[in-house]
Write a structure and sequence with these properties.
Length: 129
């Protein structure tokens, strides 16, 4: 029982770290969307918009790399916890998302933000002209 509690503690601590990476991604993504909505000057210059989106994409690559590694480690810890849970009453099983599942979601959000910002820039430019 002590081993299970130790493994579960490590799993929960690692889960919190991975969750922190998702929170950074969420905060930066919301800031990008909010900044684009309120900042007309950013949308008037194609070069500024490209630089802004490039900065966002660079953040996303770094964040995703850390998230991918973290999720892979979380899956390994999940296996250890589940293997040591047979003697624990009322515990069914941990089931974390696969690295592929988070990759698809992450990529979809990044794509939606980049496309959405680009379309918003075009729309605002069309309305100004």
């Amino acid at each position: 029982m002590c081993e299970f509690n130790d493994f579960m503690g490590v799993y929960q601590a690692h889960y919190a770290q991975v969750d922190g990476l998702w929170k950074y991604f969420q905060a930066v993504t919301m800031a990008v969307v909010g900044w684009v909505i309120v900042n007309d000057k950013l949308l008037q210059s194609r070069l500024k918009l490209i630089a802004f989106l490039l900065g966002y994409l660079i953040f996303c690559v770094g964040n995703y790399s850390a998230l991918r590694v973290g999720q892979g480690q979380l899956l390994m810890l999940e296996k250890v916890v589940n293997e040591n849970s047979s003697s624990v009453k009322g515990f069914s099983e941990l089931k974390a998302l696969s690295v592929d599942e988070i990759s698809i979601f992450y990529g979809g959000v990044v794509l939606a933000v980049v496309v959405g910002v680009s379309l918003l820039a075009r729309l605002k430019k069309t309305l100004v002209e």
